[in-house]
User: Fold this.
Amino acid sequence: MIEFWDKFSNMMKSWSDISIIARLIGAMFVGIIIGLNREMKNRGAGVKTHVLVCVGAALTMMTGEYILHQFPESKVDLTRIGAQVVSGVGFLGVGTIIVTGRNHVRGLTTAAGLWACACAGLAIGIGFFEGTTVALMIIMFTLYILDLLDREVHRKSIYHDYYIEFEDNQSVTDFLAFMRDSKIHFTNFNLSRGANKTDGPVITFTVQLPVGEPSKLFFDKLDSDEKIKFAHKL
Assistant:
């Protein structure tokens, strides 16, 4: 076992086509593992976002190593250019991330995709074609195939974000009392007013709904409470 691990470690540290592929695939699995943890908790950045960021970062690091192998006599720190591009694209990615009026975050995967695309551009710009090719296949696999996994995990999650509009403040108080009495756990509670002055209060929150009686009580409450004007799962 120790001998196998030593060979594997040496292979990963070496510079070869097998090492390039192994590193990028390893980065993909790291992103999947971390992303699944966040996805199960219904956080904004899920599997796709983490895989794109992890693969992009790995590709950037490998591009720096590629430069050292290809231009050993060069005294210019070429990696500084890449660092400025990577940090600059971060500001571009922020522009694609929005928080809707219902406190729902959108655009994280788009921002991560832009960042990974910039990393791929740096790599292929220096001639690191092998790494760019493998990274491109992984990125496309993430956006098309892992999207199905992302949706399935999200569907089976016991954590749900809700946006609910009420008629008046008392109805909010009654709803919170119901949640407490029914032992339904919730977090990230936020209370605000509707878009118009005549609108009642609005709440957004994350509720934990495992299969069983609490889940049934919650959905029955949403269906039967006449003071709930509108309820939407984010």
Q: What stands out?
A: DSSP finds nine helices and six strands in the chain. Residues 153 and 223 are 26 Å apart (CA to CA).
